[in-house]
Amino acid sequence: MNISIIITQEEHYKYSQEICDTIEQSALLRGTGIAKRTPEYIQKKMENKDAIIALDNGKFAGFCYIESWQHGKFVAHSGLIVHPDYRNLGLAKQIKSKVFDYSLEKYPEAKVFGITTGLAVMKINSDLGYKPVPFSELTSDPSFWKGCQTCTNYEILKSKDNKMCLCTGMLYDPKEKPKDPPKHPFNVRVLNRLKSIKEALFLKK
């Protein structure tokens, strides 16, 4: 395989539908909530050069894009996906590392954050220097939280006034840490336990 991970160009617009389909299918298989994207939205991110794509000799292998909030005060990485044919190869971590470095270059003053239910994404974020934080430390921009409306867990988030959900909030503040920050210890057992507690509280009948 000869996988290249690059900033999107006009020639990559044709992958928009496949990206959306892959994201949605992955969420269905995992049984997790996800904010749905449209091909038009993905293409807009590509046009603004706010996206990273991984290609294997022209075949779609992975993708991730950047969103900015509060006039660039916060940025988030969304839609991180790897095509099923390229999973378990460490490609997700490579894409995330690439989009992380690109974010710091394009938005040097921004705090980088994310919310996720996936332990694999949590580990990647932890390795990059993110730390778990309450939602109150993330962007207060209502348009970010509005993006969660298509997630199956949105009613939980809404009932908690955008302060808590099944997702875990994670944050990297460039002003607090050097460019190559020390890793935060990642304890799978603790995070699994936290996830179980949240599900017991929020999903109980």
The first-level CATH class name: Alpha Beta
What's the CATH topology name? Aminopeptidase
Order of helices and strands: EHHEEEHEHEHHEH
Largest beta-sheet details: 7 strands, mixed
Count of the domains: 1
Count, helices: 7
Count of strand segments? 7
CATH architecture annotation name: 3-Layer(aba) Sandwich
Percent helix range: 25-40%
Derived from helix and strand composition plus strand pairing, the structural class reads: alpha+beta
Quote the beta fraction.
15-25%
List keywords for this structure.
single chain, 205 residues, alpha+beta, 7-stranded mixed sheet, 7 helices, 37% helix, acyltransferase activity, transferring groups other than amino-acyl groups, GNAT_dom, transferase
Explain this structure.
With 205 residues, the protein is α+β, with helices and mostly antiparallel strands. The chain has a single domain, classed as Gcn5-related N-acetyltransferase (GNAT) (Aminopeptidase, 3-Layer(aba) Sandwich). The protein is 37% helix and 22% strand. It has a seven-stranded mixed beta sheet, sandwiched between helices. A hairpin with a 2-residue loop joins strand 2 (51-56) and strand 3. Helix 1 crosses helix 2 (39-47) and helix 3 (91-106) crosses helix 4 (119-128). The model has no long low-confidence stretch (mean pLDDT 87).
